[in-house]
Amino acid sequence: xxxxxxxxxxxxxxxxxxxxxxxxxxxxxxxxxxxxxxxSLSDWDExxxxxxxxxxxxxxxxxxxAALAAGDDVPTVSVRSAxxxxxxxxxxxxxxxxATASAASTRSHAR
Length: 111
Hints:
Layout: E1 6-12, H1 14-19, E2 25-29, E3 37-45, E4 50-56, H2 60-66, E5 76-80, E6 106-109
Antiparallel strand pairs: 1-4, 1-6, 2-3, 2-5, 3-4
């Protein structure tokens, strides 16, 4: 938690981190069939295969994202450009058979 309703979420998503560019945003889901939330990329580390976003807890879906703990799954992570063209497909992860996920775990950090 950065402040009571702002959370820094760092997600392992190697395919997304490789394609990340300034001005892009990611689509996250807190649950497999949940609402798709677009969030601006705040940071990424291609070598570590991670991306970071800041989540403002203002509703049920952002509340579920803010409540994620280290090691929790994020069912969907994909990167989009500002002009709404998909930059990279989501990849399947062996962590969840049948899911359209590209993130194997999450780490929430306070900075």
